[in-house]
Known about the structure:
The protein is an alpha+beta fold. The protein has two domains: 50 residues; 136 residues, Sandwich (Hypothetical Protein Tm1070, Chain: A). Helices cover 28% and strands 35% of the residues. The strands form three sheets. Strands 1, 5, 6, 7, 9 and 12 form a six-stranded antiparallel beta sheet that branches. A hairpin with a 2-residue loop joins strand 10 and strand 11. The longest helix is centred in the N-terminal third of the chain and has 37 residues. It starts with a helix and ends with a helix.
Amino acid sequence: MNNDTDKTAYSRKNPIFASSFGALAFLAMLALLSYFGYKLGDIEDQLESRLEYQPPVATLTETDATQPLFATRHAHTIYVPVYSHIYAMGGTPVLLETTLSVRNTDPEKPVVITSIAYFDTKGNMVEEYIDGNLMLGPLESTEVLVEKRDIRGGSGANFLVKWNAKTPVHLPIVQAVMVGSEGDLDISFRSDGRPLTTRIDPISMDK
Length: 207
């Protein structure tokens, strides 16, 4: 108790000491805040680096995919409607960024993605996103990014995703998520892929 009283009395008698001590404490606090801020920034940079988009890379050669292991009758195509822009506020185009997600839903068997082709509104192929064939292991996924500045697709763009497998598997899920903003308007929506199976005769549908 006496020591505390003595320190207080000393500080009152020596204002320079008190102000110097306060300044040092303030500087130490700033240094700690700066250190922890640096650490948090470093962690954020590491997370962003880990989450940064990486385009899909073929894991099988064209020859591999034509071997009996994969060249089977279990080959299919999934159609996915996407939009590089939509219209809002009386016809103003709103640019969108698209993430296409291709997911193997089978918990036990792989599937092979043989093509992820991007088409524009006129039906012209804009880009093939895999050079070769990509094997997705059980429950594995891959993704394709169409950036906001890429306006080649248009409002009627689409993907055709082709895949096959050695044996019957659960149907892969292919979805596209579009995001964008215009002024105070924020847009986000999902588009689900649709398997292309048997062609339908329109005449028979009228009967």
